[in-house]
Amino acid sequence: MLLTNATIATMKRGSPYGLIRDGAVAIKADKILWVGKAQDVPQSFNSMSREDLEGRLITPGLIDCHTHVVHGGNRSDEFEMRLNGASYQEISVAGGGIVSTVKNTREASQEELLESALTRVDALLAEGVCVIEVKSGYGLDVETEIKMLRVARLIETLRPVIIRTSFLGAHAVPKEFKGRSDKYIDEVCIPALLAANSEGLVDAVDGFCEGIAFNKEQISRVFDVAHKLGLPIKLHAEQLSNIGGAQLAARYKALSADHLEYATFKDAEVMGLSKSVAVLLPGAFYTLGETQHPPVKAFRDCGVDIAIATDCNPGSSPLASLLLAMNMGCSLFKLTPEESLAGVTRNAARALGLSNRGKVEVGFKADLAVWDVFHPAELAYRIGFNSLYKRFFGGLEL
Ligand code: NIG
Ligand code: FE
User: Are 212 and 105 within one domain?
Assistant: First the structure.
């Protein structure tokens, strides 16, 4: 089919938004066959079915490249505690935080986890999202880590979306291993990774490198196994302090390092060399009331691609709107609207190692979002307003 009379933010590099006015996109099966000015549409397309978009905006289907949408329960009680003066770290050290979601996730059945995840997935899809990354990390035992990843894979069979999974066994030390984090890595985290991978449940391996989680040496042990299995790396790094996570990630040629509020210019430099994407998570910054900003200028100066994601999770970022994350990226981190759109398309695809998504380009998957707006800056500009007109997933209007 041929989509005509459209403004197209192709997100190809070289011009702002790779914008084409009075444009057209031809779709064949699940791929983009042609994109360009409407006046240049080849004669041979005359027999195609046409849809006049009346000037509306086409962007690549959006990509949420960092989420924890599969989890049990919620943590509104901790939200209340923080507003009464407790800090995120204090709550975590006192046995709340990630490990309280672990309890709820262990207790939930696969069906319950799936049902609650789908409510969050549906909110994302309604905003033109076509790819969602989903992490494990609230199981922290072999069985529950695998249960989470199976649920993540099931989402793809029930909704028109691509799911990319990340194994996050090194997310927190569970209660039963308190004070024995090395043992947890050797006896649970690595065996869980091997078991999950042998079931084909793992697309990438993630970790949480932080004082309240795991140190560099422990994360390295997990990453060494990932590399042996041929799996790419991601890392929650420099969120609450700087303990060298971004540099560690760069050494493993990570797809991305995520959060990065406490990253330095030197960190940006090595990430530029390793071509790792900086995934910024303004929802967590906002929810935790952080004041330290990620070094956006250093990322720009060092040629580090910036992505934005929701980090949708019950603790630090109960956010299921990628459009709001884009707006927060601009208002809180001073990204430009163009950077924020690149952050949920082209650069988010890179953060997941996807080479055929995130741009409106010939040969790419026909995952497209059509918006009832006329300039792409409108997407990040509005707050709490969804202007999605329709969505194409793999060439089909779904
Ligand atoms: O990405 N930083 C570590 N992990 C999650 C938070 C998890 C939680 O608090 O439940 C994050 O922010
Ligand atoms: Fe996260």
Answer: yes
